[in-house]
User: Fold this.
Amino acid sequence: MKTEKSAGVVIFNKNKFLLLKYKRYWGFVKGNIELNETEKETAIRETEEETKIKDLEFLNFKEKLNYIYKWDKSLISKEVIMFLAKTSTESVTISEEHLDYKWLDYDQALEYLKFANLKNLLIKVKPLISNKQ
Assistant:
């Protein structure tokens, strides 16, 4: 089975979380780790590429997500390292790989997220942002 490793970031501004609309689901910024790039460097680069957000203040949080998905009749084992970061930027310019974006409060974001691993990630980060707003 082919394997992939990506990194991403849950971005928040005050009490709102940034969700990006992919083709079939809403999710967070993420992308494949490039050669000689650290996980955090990937998260920063992907944030700039996917949203144009440049001011990220990373919190002390790192979570590994593992899942298997099907692509072109092949199964792929994916590992995603997720970070948590605060931004003061509200304006987002999405890349071509996304259809839309939304800043949502916690309850709304939970409703938009389709996959259990992303919902659980949001549940884990919520207590960490309460004093960082």
Notes: The CA atoms of residues 47 and 53 lie 6 Å apart. The first strand starts at residue 2 and ends at 13.
